């Protein structure tokens, strides 16, 4: 009887151990499979991370380049805007002076006023020659040049000459100054519109790069 009990116990115990070993081996195999899967997933994630880092660096480089270009554009616009606003202001002042004598001879203008207007005219013609190249007619240019060369000439104290017959009336110069002012204002408006477009394009690019 004791032998039978011992045999039964040994058989039962052996089956339990065999099952436990089989379960453990199955578990080990399952874990090994998962480890391999996780290792493969880890390698894939590392590759994706490297690619993302490269993409981020590329986007940052593009954004830095766009920022540098934008800063240059803004600096150029600010300089151009300041210059044009100054020129427009100077021309307005000259027009106010001439407006009081429009259509009359320059000799009826105080000498200091004639000199100031001539200086303003010459300075703006030289400073913005590229803008005014096609804005003024040949006759307007001749009238402006004649006045600039001799703003204080007293044509009525000497005998009549060709210069006297060509002496520009204040109305002619008033028209030249007015045309110049309108040209500068049109260029300023175009520059401001372009600046707004450049700013919007930069903001859109920045938002797209940051989203990526």
What does it look like?
The chain is built from 6 helices and no strands. The protein has 212 residues and is an all-alpha fold. The longest helix is centred in the first third of the chain and has 98 residues, at 2-99.
Question: What are the SSEs and their pairings?
Answer:
Layout: H1 2-99, H2 111-127, H3 129-132, H4 138-149, H5 162-166, H6 170-211
Helix pairs in contact: 1-2, 1-6, 2-4, 4-6
Q: Helix/strand-derived class?
A: mainly alpha
Distance between the termini: 81 Å
Q: Radius of gyration, Cα only, in angstroms?
A: 44 Å
Q: Give helix and strand order, one letter per element, not per position.
A: HHHHHH
The helix count comes to: 6
Average pLDDT score: 82
- Measured as a percent range, the helix fraction is over 70%
Strand content: under 5%
Number of strands: 0
Major sheet details: none
Question: Would you identify the regions where 5 or more consecutive residues have pLDDT less than 50?
Answer: 154-167
Global shape:
rod-shaped
Features:
single chain, 212 residues, mainly alpha
Quick recap:
The chain has helices spanning 2-99, 111-127, 129-132, 138-149, 162-166, 170-211. By secondary structure, it is an all-alpha fold. α1 (2-99) runs antiparallel to α2 (111-127), α1 (2-99) runs antiparallel to α6 and α4 (138-149) packs across α6.
